[in-house]
Amino acid sequence: MWKGVAVFCFFFxxxxxxxxxxxxxxxxxxxxxxxASEQVLDQIKSSDTAAKLDEARALLGGLKLSAKxxxxxxxxxxxxxxxxxxIGADNAGLVSYTAQIKxxxxxxxxxxAALTAIERARAVKxxxxxxxxxxxxxxxxxxxxxxxxxxxxxxxxxxxxxSVKIPGGLELNFQTAAAIKTTQEEVLKSYRRQVxxxxxxxxxxxxxxSTVSRIIEDKIKPFFDSQSLNPDFRCTIHVRxxxxxxxxxxxxxxxxxxxxxxxxxxxGRAWSIRFGMMGRCWRLEQTxxxxxxxxxxxxxxxxxxxxxxxxxxxxxxxxLFCHMIFANNKSPLASFYLxxxxxxxxxxKAKMDALEGTVAAAITEYHLDDAxxxxxxxxxxxxxxxxxxxxxx
Length: 393
Description:
The protein is an alpha+beta fold. 62% of the residues lie in helices and 11% in strands. It has helices spanning 2-22, 26-42, 49-61, 67-123, 125-145, 148-160, 177-206, 208-226, 258-261, 276-284, 297-303, 308-312, 349-365, 368-379, and strands spanning 163-166, 170-173, 233-240, 247-250, 270-272, 288-290, 319-326, 332-340.
């Protein structure tokens, strides 16, 4: 990183120097004007009037006239002599003044030339300041972000200072790590409350809970009666969680209703698709059911994606049934879930296969899949889908 910073600084200095030497200055303009003035003065020459007067006097002096006319001629020659003297004096003054002006111009050019480089630097002062301070701040930020000591120092400073008041009424507030964590937790809780409210709204709108309750009463309980089974089961629907990417959400409370009266409704829970049989069915995009669940903690961790703590406190349900419901584009839409605490509560494999057929037919008959498709259609546009874990690029 520092090699790149050094290269950047070199080119930055090069740009500054170029700006200085290319910057037009008032001294350079003055030097140009003085040089032009000198050239004009060099073009000034003594008038040739004196030579013409001398030539006229010579011609008049050679004339021979009568006495009366000679007197007038002599007066004319005398006037020419006076004019000649006046012109000579004027030419001498002109030469003197021109030389004096050129001397002053030379001194001015010398003074201006000595100040030109300094004046150039002053002329680009504002541009230098505009360019320098963002670069300095950027380098400081890069240094801070790449320096562990700087980060630790800022953390300690933030834990000691809660706010700083600056003259002019400006106040800067610093949050500690604990305060930031609390704020983040409050934001996520607020999001989750909004998500629960949205799901509850579409559940009521499309009568998901009522439809599942009718399927239980009209199809599932009669099936168990016909198979001489009386399991103490519970049933619910899981869908995609619209808050977190790759997570599942329990859309309705467990049915029958007694589970809600016992305080075990469960609606609003969410967890990763990497957890448990539910997550495995979702990832594999296939229905799965088992009459018994391993109780060995190692197996739960390796095969069911649980942590040690989760394996130690895993659900006591032994019979699990997860029927996958797919959207029109064949992607996972929801899961129709049943479980019971006893092993083989839904009968042997043949009976569970028959239960799968009954559930699948009931979902189509009661248009539960269509209703869930509408639920997803309503919620998908509002989904933030916060990605907790991302693939390594």
